[in-house]
Write a structure and sequence with these properties.
Elements: H1 21-28, H2 41-52, H3 57-67, H4 71-80, E1 92-97, H5 100-104, H6 107-118, E2 124-125, E3 131-136, E4 148-150, E5 153-155, H7 163-167
Parallel strand pairs: 1-3
Antiparallel strand pairs: 1-4, 2-3, 4-5
The structure holds FE2/S2 (inorganic) cluster (FES).
Length: 191
């Protein structure tokens, strides 16, 4: 099984967006729901990524100031979770499971085919901005591996020969898993 560290450290050269006042207000709206401001970091990162598409360096500095923690605290968290992107990602994020069950069922061949068809590597984006590729730990469908998730559409028992067809599947644009609305509004109380 091939484990490898993902390089999420390279800073983008382009300017990254600042937090808008409404977004800051939305983050502040979570302060009274958590015991400390620091504890709001994860929801804040989700809100930033929902709004900007990724968590850029400028946003990391500004959310650090808002939560009264250091930018390195924020970066530690962002770089720990593969879900968070520090640079713009494609319209469709292709997540290839790399955990044990899928690995035993041929996940490496599926990943190789994705790389070949898209012409990109792990945590990279196609030049037209359409697809980003990443490897991910268990996608929770271990008995139907190897699995690929494209945005929120799960593809099970993936045959490498079908990868091109799967990537072009219009169904990838439809949600088949209800999306949490936890971060859609500061006043919501249910997920
Ligand atoms: S190991 Fe791939 S879905 Fe669980």
């Amino acid at each position: 099984m091939a484990w490898k560290a993902i390089d999420r450290v390279n800073a983008p050269t382009e300017e990254s967006p600042s937090l808008s006042e409404p977004l800051k207000e939305k983050i502040r709206g979570f302060f009274d729901r958590y015991p400390t401001k620091r504890a709001v970091l994860i929801p804040a990162l989700h809100m930033i990524q929902d709004d900007h598409g990724y968590v850029g360096w400028k946003a990391m500095e500004e959310v650090a100031e808002l939560l009264e923690i250091t930018p390195s605290d924020v970066f530690d968290t962002v770089s720990f979770y593969s879900h968070f992107w520090t640079h713009p990602k494609g319209e469709k994020v292709v997540m290839a499971c790399r955990s044990i069950s899928c690995d035993l069922l041929g996940a490496d061949r599926v990943l190789d085919e994705c790389k070949k068809v898209l012409g990109i590597g792990d945590h990279e984006t196609t030049p037209d901005g359409k697809y980003s590729l990443m490897t991910e730990e268990c996608l929770a469908a271990c008995d139907h591996g190897p699995c690929l998730m494209i945005n929120e559409k799960m593809h099970k028992c993936v045959d490498p020969a079908n990868v091109r067809k799967i990537l072009e599947d219009d169904a990838n644009d439809k949600l088949d898993i209800p999306r949490s609305n936890l971060y859609d509004g500061a006043n919501r109380t249910s997920a």
